[in-house]
């Protein structure tokens, strides 16, 4: 029979899995408490970073419907439960890992799809959602201006031709 404190921890972890837009797994072996605190600050607003027990996390992940995390839950594991923008959280982890090579990004889950450590690094290289939406809006706006120009071009050309004919008739008369 499970102890009540472990059952509560599993329930809390399962709720965090369900409430997260992404989950990023790291190995923190060799990091000091001060470095972990610095990492938590860099993730503030986008993710909650927690050191977890692998067995309890595996149970909670199964309860939350994430069966593909078990093989990543080896060694000292910490999880970033992303509540904000996944790209921003991945960038924070990547930047911290560059400055502190002891942090190893193991992988994660984004929208139900398993990510490897390389996938998380590729995710970090993407521009933020707002920038991508801005670029898409700019492309749509350019396409609309081009379409408006194409629709008005024949009428403008006809008006110029008529005006040229009037000027020619006036010059001949």
UniProtKB/TrEMBL annotation:
> Would the keyword Iron turn up in this protein's UniProt record?
no
User: What is an annotated GO biological process for this record, any one?
Assistant: translation
Q: Which GO terms describe its cellular component?
A: large ribosomal subunit
Entries under InterPro entries matching the protein:
Ribosomal_uL10 (IPR001790), Ribosomal_uL10-like_sf (IPR043141), Ribosomal_uL10_bac (IPR022973), Ribosomal_uL10_bac_type (IPR047865), Ribosomal_uL10_CS_bac (IPR002363)
Protein name per its UniProtKB record: Large ribosomal subunit protein uL10
The UniProt GO MF terms for this protein read: large ribosomal subunit rRNA binding; structural constituent of ribosome
Function statement: Forms part of the ribosomal stalk, playing a central role in the interaction of the ribosome with GTP-bound translation factors.
Subunit and partners: Part of the ribosomal stalk of the 50S ribosomal subunit. The N-terminus interacts with L11 and the large rRNA to form the base of the stalk. The C-terminus forms an elongated spine to which L12 dimers bind in a sequential fashion forming a multimeric L10(L12)X complex.
Q: Which UniProt keywords apply?
A: Ribonucleoprotein, Ribosomal protein, RNA-binding, rRNA-binding
Q: Which family does it belong to?
A: Belongs to the universal ribosomal protein uL10 family.
PANTHER family (UniProt xref): 39S RIBOSOMAL PROTEIN L10, MITOCHONDRIAL (PTHR11560)
PROSITE patterns the record matches: RIBOSOMAL_L10 (PS01109)
Pfam family example for this protein? Ribosomal_L10
């Amino acid at each position: 029979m499970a102890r009540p404190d472990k059952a509560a921890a599993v329930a809390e972890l399962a709720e965090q899995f369900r409430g997260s837009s992404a989950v990023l797994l790291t190995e923190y072996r060799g990091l000091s408490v001060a470095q972990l605190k610095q990492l938590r600050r860099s993730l503030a607003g986008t993710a909650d970073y927690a050191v977890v027990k692998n067995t309890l996390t595996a149970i909670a992940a199964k309860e939350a419907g994430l069966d593909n995390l078990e093989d990543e839950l080896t060694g000292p594991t910490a999880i970033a439960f992303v509540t904000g923008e996944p790209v921003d959280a991945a960038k924070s982890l990547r930047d911290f890992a560059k400055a502190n090579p002891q942090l190893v990004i193991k992988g994660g889950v984004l929208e139900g799809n398993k990510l490897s450590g390389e996938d998380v690094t590729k995710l970090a290289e993407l521009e933020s959602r707002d920038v991508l939406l801005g670029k898409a809006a700019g492309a749509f706006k350019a396409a609309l201006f081009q379409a408006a120009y194409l629709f008005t071009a024949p009428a403008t050309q006809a008006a110029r031709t008529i005006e040229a004919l009037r000027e020619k008739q006036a010059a001949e008369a």
